[in-house]
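One such given next:
>
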Amino acid sequence: MEKFDVTIIGAGPGGYVAAIRCAQLGMKTALIEKYPTLGGTCLNVGCIPSKALLDSSEHFYNAVHHFEEHGIEVKAPKVNLKQMIERKRGVVKMTCDGINFLMKKNKITVYTGVGSFESKTVINITKADGTKEQIESTKSIIATGSKPSSLPSIAIDKKRIITSTEALEMTEIPKHLIVIGGGVIGLELGSVYARLGSKVSVVEFMDRLIPAMDAGLGKELQRVMKKSLSVDFYMKHKVMGAVVKGKEVNVSAENDKGEKIELKGDYVLMAVGRKPYTEGLGLEKVGIKLDARGRVEVDAHLKTSADNIYAIGDVIVGAMLAHKAEEEGVFVAEQMAGQKPHIDYNLIPGVVYTWPEVAAVGQTEEQLKEKGVKYKVGSFPFKASGRARASMDTDGFVKVLSDETTDEILGVHMIGPRTADMIAEAVVAMEYRASAEDISRMSHAHPTYTESLKEAALDATGKRALHI
């Protein structure tokens, strides 16, 4: 039985990053992954492939709607969905191959199979052919991620009622795609097919899109998607069921007044969130407990009730984000090495890769009001940005929230061009407890999108914005 200092079960962003950091710190490290490729949901059927399709569909949309205004004359473009999917697969393969290289570079032993605990220090590895192997590990990290959720009334058949996984491998462009859930996954993939010509309807139980983010962002995103992509939204609607009839799916729902509607489409995308994946881990053998939502219970050091086993990423409490899992992977590895790392969960940014992009970090206005915190608001619209006008990306705004007394930045919320990248400046500022005035007095290159953050900060420091 081979012995390791640490073994990580699950090779998603949290798992493979934890493995790399453990190896860098001198630990003999093993990584167990049940699928033949590393990278987990994010690299294989999540973040990376969805961004590839988002970019491809954005190019097509711009060719159809904006090239002529830019002075570019082309014949009417057509979608080659097969090639689009092939390009996406190529991006995924290249990224996953990169992880394989990193495992070899860092001398990490990779096992392909399902990992489960026989005891606190013995791990079973069940391979696809049914054969088993055991390894011994002084410490372990659970990083098995999550899988798509559904509704009790709806059975996912992966043909007409699909998840994000199937939506990334479509063989035809839907005529009418019904998206159940107005969160990140539903809006990103819904926008892909809306750009390619699908009629898209979004059914959302809450009164706004991306409900975990600042209310103003969801309101603006809904407005823009309706205007530019003709997406229909059914807010405050509870889905009652979905029935497949041949090549058609009938979705029934009712609003908060009890009024019923029925939508007919050829595909339904279930995008009502994800749930932790802990099946088959043998947690009961090592006394590890799950909470009411099926998440692994951990303490402030991300240690489970088994003193040598940790858990990170989507299987524990918190936002289900790849970069959150990565931070936790490094955090656990460095703790094992006797270091004193920290994570400020308030400063982990969230991003929606629609166009315009949505990005945020820190507290929302709703959260500050609920806590009774007195704050100032500064905002700046992209329609007043010279860089945004030059690229024809004038939808959206930047909002800065700062403490009324100290001016410390409490939250930054953006919707607009390249905000997924812009938000990093806000994260850096908030990590160093910057004030809105600090950002307002820093020189920002002109013309850039990031000037809009400076202008919003100026607005927050006393309505001093220069260009509105």
The longest helix spans residues 81-105. The chain has three domains: 2-148+275-345, 161-272, 356-460. The longest strand covers residues 132-142. Residues 160 and 267 are 5 Å apart (CA to CA).
